[in-house]
Write a structure and sequence with these properties.
The chain has about 140 residues and is of the alpha+beta class. The protein has 6 helices and 6 strands.
Amino acid sequence: MFTGMPTQPSVSTLDAFWPSLQVLIGDIKPAAKTLSNFYSLISHFGFTPELFSLLTGKINQGSEIYPLRPEFVESLVYMYRATGDQMWRNMGKQVLDAIEISTRTPCGYATVSNVVTHQLEDKMESFFSLRNYKVPVPSLQ
């Protein structure tokens, strides 16, 4: 804290909002790199863990959960709208398809309690439906 040196170099699912801000100010290339890095986590685990250590290259203990956060999908929508590049649209569709296939239950969608095992939890956050499906889907279809 007093030296300015990083103490916990990690990435959080909430950090996925950053590329949308980069797009809004016109920093398309850095946003593309950030989105690609997040997508590599999704490609590896199927979902983004809540906290991933950049030092160890592993999920931080106790952070295996994916509570269906919308920030990555929202950032993909911003990038697609800014560039018109189908790649971003396809990524968004893949993420939404994975959510549909892996977390859909008879009563809604379940939080992924462990992104390694894809074990589900009997819980759906209130932000999920509004932010993952209401806004992005028309742009990704």
